[in-house]
Specification:
The chain is 30% helix and 26% strand. The protein folds into six domains: 2-53, Winged helix-like DNA-binding domain superfamily/Winged helix DNA-binding domain (Arc Repressor Mutant, subunit A, Orthogonal Bundle); 60-122, OB fold (Dihydrolipoamide Acetyltransferase, E2P) (Beta Barrel); 127-191, Beta Barrel (OB fold (Dihydrolipoamide Acetyltransferase, E2P)), CATH 2.40.50; 217-453, no CATH class; 467-516, no CATH class; 603-731, Nucleic acid-binding proteins (OB fold (Dihydrolipoamide Acetyltransferase, E2P)). It is an alpha+beta fold. The chain is built from 18 helices and 35 strands. Helix 5 runs antiparallel to helix 17.
Length: 748
């Protein structure tokens, strides 16, 4: 309701008295005034006498600080307003990623709102990694991250025997907790040299992003104890579904199976579909040591060659994992569907199941493509076929409702026994779509039920684009000849379809993506724009995501009829903090996964120096282009390396334009490149244009004619379908909830 009041004030843009809002929303005036005061405290509104209005110049805003390498930054506002530019001299000790309160002070020469940081509300990082330097009697850390200060003073303890230049990790102590005038670092541990030591690099990433790799003994002891507790007493009160043909579908290397499915054909020609989720809440009690550790971690983290689970393995890979042939406790969503995939009814039950088969994406994909079923798949072959048909009808219904679909190729980084890098494309589109749609269905039904009953929940929200971003997007699309009718998912989808197959498809897709906000967790149901869902949350992965575990507790209390007033009030009070914390931990996990993946991709590139590959232009800047190879490795090609012309950057079309030839290099364009250099320590891959290996034509004098890959001089590249490759993590999760590789599954 607070967000609805805020949106109302944004639309009307005038000072408003609580009495008027009370009449509009049918709430008591005291309730409205309390919500308005909360918005004032968050910096979204200001109070002028007895009325409330949007902040004018000089007012305060709250958001995350996004710092550039050059020192300046932007506050990405929580209210969805335009980013606030912060000059370097006005940061006032705020660092990249910090949640800050800032004040608008004017506009800069480019017409952007400019401001200054007033105070840091929450620090984004606690540790830093860099090189030790001794200078003028002091010890200093020179951070590896260029967005951090160039040097940080260190306490001397633990540094006495370390040589100058050592790579170390330190804990950061900020002035607000120490009372000192500036931040300082406390030595944690010495790390191996950057670049070639895989274990040292993995450890550095864990420390840099404030992740946890070891469980406290107290937590392990509790986990072992609850894992040994017998489930026999539970069987008497639960719905027994052990006689059904339940099975799991996961990646070949998966070890924790937190979801399973079944199909039952009913006499009236309809189908019962069961989505069974591991009952982690039975083992992880609210407020226990296990629960506190799971909350602190927030999510499992899937690094190349290393998994940092949210729960100890005795639970995540043991009693909570829905392995075949074992009785397991679950919370099940039982849905009755007609042949068109329409939901006729549903119910939630605490259940006991026994999986009949552990299937993998590759074998299910092969079967759906026409191959004979494997031995494990044969008993449920007809069920798999029917479930796939139903899932496609569910997908079609989502598309009709306006859900936005992008094609995001994914590549998984795997390490061999000697640390060799293997880049494995994620395929099995049909098998993954089958599971994706069923998990989306369960998440959606749970969200709608809790919302309808007015129960507390942690929703997965993806808010509508702000008015400013929508206006900027509409203007940019208009320059390309497209009309965006409204800030709705259906309108976005319409533009995407209109651009499909055209040379500017990549530009259009990127503009649409950049207008969207990041998905996050919230205690309020604000809808999910990308999925075009009014109600949505995360319920299906409680082994690896803390918000799912929290939602399970609410659903179980609903099933058991134990929704006491005290419990509801406690959840209402604590859920906002949990939502914010879970969102922050998710971003840290994503950053760590991306960081280490880039490191290994650079290692792969270094092993393939001089080789030629096909790729897709994934980014265009004034100083060059980013090209993502088909195996997921992204490198940078400097503008100076394009020898066939001088290229100028065209910001309106996000492209480079050759001044002499008229050649335009766009997003989504296919490009042939050669790997010219790679630095794992810097996560950097350097590319140059590759010449065609084959002879293109022979001159009459017998000399071979060669050219740089691209269209002939003076001509544009012929129109043909292009496939956009975009860095998913940069733009944020919004598009759909795929059951992906184990490292990305928790974001569903």
């Amino acid at each position: 309701m607070k967000q609805a009041i805020y949106e109302h004030l944004k639309r009307h843009k005038k000072p408003t008295h609580p009495k008027e809002l009370s009449r509009v929303f049918g709430l008591k005036r005291s309730v409205v005034r309390g919500l308005l005061n909360e918005l004032v405290a968050e910096g979204k509104l200001e109070r002028v006498r007895s009325r409330y209005q949007l902040p004018e110049r000089g007012a305060r805003v709250v958001g995350r600080l996004d710092l550039a390498k050059d020192g300046y930054g932007f506050v990405v506002r929580e209210d969805g307003g335009p980013d606030l530019f912060i000059p370097e001299e006005r940061l006032r000790g705020a660092w990249h990623g910090d949640r800050v309160e800032a004040r608008i002070v004017g506009t800069d020469r480019r017409g952007r709102e400019s401001g200054e940081v007033l105070r840091v509300l929450e620090r984004a990082r606690r540790n830093a990694v860099g090189n030790l330097r001794f200078s003028r009697g002091y010890a200093w850390l020179v951070p590896e991250d260029p967005r951090l200060p160039p040097r940080i003073k260190l306490r001397p303890e633990g540094l006495g025997v370390l040589p100058d230049g050592s790579r170390i990790a330190v804990r950061l102590v900020f002035p607000e907790e120490s009372g000192a005038r500036e931040v300082f670092g406390v030595f944690l541990e010495r790390l191996g040299a950057s670049g070639d030591d895989i274990e040292a690099e993995t450890r550095a990433v864990i420390l840099k992003h404030d992740l946890k790799d070891e469980f406290p003994e107290e937590v392990l002891a509790v986990a072992r104890r609850v894992a040994r507790s017998p489930i026999a007493p539970e069987l008497e009160r639960r719905v027994d579904l052990r006689d059904l043909s339940v099975f799991t579908i996961d990646g070949p290397d998966a070890k924790d199976f937190d979801d399973a499915i079944h199909l039952r054909r009913l006499e009236d020609g309809t189908f019962e579909v069961g989505i069974h989720i591991a009952d982690v809440a039975h083992y992880v009690k609210e407020g226990s040591a296990l629960d506190r550790e799971a909350y602190a971690r927030g999510t499992s983290v899937y690094l190349p060659g290393r998994v940092l689970p949210m729960l100890p393995e005795v639970l995540s890979n043991g009693v909570c994992s829905l392995v075949p042939g074992e009785d397991r406790l679950a919370v099940s969503v039982l849905v009755r569907l007609d042949r068109e995939g329409k939901v006729l009814e549903h119910r939630f039950v605490e259940s006991v199941i026994r999986s009949r088969a552990r299937l993998t994406y590759p074998e299910v994909e092969a079967f759906l493509e026409g191959a004979a079923p494997s031995e494990a798949l044969s008993p449920v072959a007809e069920d798999v076929k029917t479930l796939f048909a139903l899932s496609q009808r569910l997908r079609a219904a989502r598309e009709a409702e306006g859900a936005i679909f992008f094609d995001f190729p994914e590549v998984k980084v795997e390490l061999g026994p000697k640390g060799e890098v293997h880049l494995i494309p994620i395929r099995e589109e049909k098998a993954r779509s089958l599971i994706e749609e069923l998990m989306l269905l369960a998440n959606r039904l749970v969200a709608a039920e809790l919302e309808e009953r007015g129960l507390p929940a942690l929703f997965r929200v993806h808010e509508d684009p702000s008015e400013d971003r929508f206006r900027e997007l509409s203007e940019a699309l208009a320059r390309l000849g497209y009309r965006l009718e409204a800030p709705t998912p259906a309108a976005y989808q319409k533009v995407l379809k209109a651009a499909s197959g055209r040379p500017e498809a990549g530009v259009v897709a990127t503009l649409l993506l950049r207008s969207l906000k990041l998905a996050r967790y919230a205690e309020e149901n604000l809808g999910h724009f990308g999925l075009a869902f009014r109600d949505y949350l995360h319920f299906t992965s409680p082994i690896r995501r803390y918000p799912d575990l929290v939602v399970h507790r609410v659903v179980k209390a609903l099933i058991q009829g134990r929704l006491s007033e005290e419990k509801l009030l406690r959840w209402q009070r604590t859920f906002p903090q949990i939502a914010e914390h879970a969102s922050v931990r998710e971003r840290l996990a994503e950053a760590a996964e991306r960081d280490l993946s880039k490191y290994h991709q650079a290692r792969w590139a270094r092993a393939h120096l001089g080789e030629v590959f096909e790729g897709t232009v994934s980014g265009v800047q004034s100083f060059g282009i980013f090209v993502m190879l088909d195996n997921g490795v992204e490198g940078f090609l400097r503008k100076e390396a394009l020898k066939d012309d001088y290229y100028a950057y065209d910001p309106e079309t996000l492209s480079l334009l050759g001044e002499r030839t008229g050649r335009r290099i766009r997003l989504g364009e296919r490009f042939r490149v050669q790997i010219a250099g790679a630095s794992p320590a810097l996560r950097q891959v350097d590319l140059v244009p590759a010449e065609e290996v084959k002879t293109l034509s022979e001159k009459k004098d017998g000399k071979k004619k060669r050219r740089v890959v691209g269209p002939p001089e003076g001509k544009d590249r012929p129109e043909r379908p292009v496939k956009l490759t975009v860095n998913r993590v940069y733009f944020g999760e919004w598009q759909g909830e795929k059951k992906e590789s184990e490292g990305k599954k928790r974001r569903r």
